[in-house]
Amino acid sequence: MGQQIPVVQIETPKKNKKNSTSIVTRSYTGLFRNVRLLFTGFLLAIFFFIPWINWNDRQSVLWDFPNGRFYIFNTTFWPQDFILLSALLIICAFGLFFLTVLAGRVWCGYSCPQSVWTWIFLRIEHLTQGERNQRIKLQNAPWSVNKAIRVFAKHFLWLLVGLISAVTFVGYFTPIRELSVNLMQFQATALSVFWVFFFTLGTYLAAGFLREKVCTHMCPYSRFQSVMFDDSTLLVSYDAKRGEPRGTRKKGQETETMGSCIDCTLCVQVCPTGIDIRDGLQLGCINCGACVDVCNEVMDKMNYPRDLISYTSERALAGGKTHFLRPRLVGYAITLLVMFIGLGWGLSERAPMRMDVIKDRTMFRENLDGYYENTYMIKVINKTQEPRSYQISLKDAPHFQLNKEHILSLQPGEIGHLPVTVTQTQALTESFVPVVFAVHDIAKPEYVLTTKNNFTAPVGQ
Ligand code: SF4
Ligand code: SF4
User: Fold this and answer.
1) Radius of gyration over alpha carbons of the chain, in Å?
2) Considering every ligand atom, which ligand is closest to the CA of 266?
3) Among 175, 187, 420, 427, which one is most buried in terms of CB atoms within 10 A?
4) pLDDT band at residue 10, thresholds of 50, 70 and 90?
5) Which atom of ligand 2 is nearest to the CA of 277?
């Protein structure tokens, strides 16, 4: 196991800040920016469009709290299946651990909602108020019509994005089509309006104002992620041996006493968390690669080799080779694989129906033939996405019979209740005799469930 990299404290450079509360980033282009654009675009498309897709006459993904069901396309999770959902969450946590050991905080840089929405809000800022220098100038300028329009446009668009995001998020918990229509007609429930308002405001504040403070001061992951790094973890790092001593110069004005860093500070100006990666690995670095892209562009212009700042490991910076097949990484990968197989097995073995048998409060009654009868309430849940018919019967019960054939037809997700009477056909030697009820899907006889209960009768009858 590699040696841990010490985490240094964040020192926010003054050059990237207009004042102590706002970081003004400049736009840039490059490979990692394009990867980020594609990846976040893909994630946002999934987030915004999935609730609008219908599946089997209902919303494709819906967490229906009042009815205790969670629909994901063809699969319905019931409260009894929540162990599988918990397993899914544990798999996600292990996936994050694996990713962190492999490549640090790339989750934060490329897919964390806080970073993604901050990035959208930054684009809006750029759209309404221009490039970094223009934004700083505007912020420092006295109020004017131009400034008021631009500031208003920015906040209006921020709130609009916040509102659309909030409606979409709430739409995962209440049917989104109904919710949207009800909101537009001012007929939404107070609870829906509260949550939409809450998430609109939350998005506006978190992505518009808190931004990097969430990543550096509020997110618990940023606090413990550094203990997961080892000397082969791929982190955005500055090659100080090559870059120092830094110094400004013109292109072609080479000097042997200087390193490759021309001290242009562009890497600081693009950083969404306002840090200077040249000060070493820092708590606030979300591994977004912005400084890599912009520094590579500078190196190209200067005709210097690229990767003065790059995704690299401490081992590689020290002249060694990054190890990918290391015990912790392999251990996480194997654990993840085993958990995926276990989850797949658990999902495939899930019973497509459920049966509960509740005995009537009346212990027994005697029929006209002198035999004793017990009454039960059978509850069957159709957990599939299609209508199904189920037959209720008794299993291995030579002493008993059902009073008639019982067939229960249920719609997808429907819960059926059926009262049944069991009659004794032979004398019993005990007061409480186990009786096994079976339910089988008529279309798929291999789907059979059994549940045990007791038959009660006076001894010796
Ligand atoms: S972008 Fe590169 S050259 Fe410019 S200051 Fe940063 S590390 Fe130095
Ligand atoms: S230091 Fe570089 S990789 Fe880290 S957050 Fe800033 S721009 Fe992104």
Assistant:
1) 32
2) 1
3) 420
4) very low
5) 1
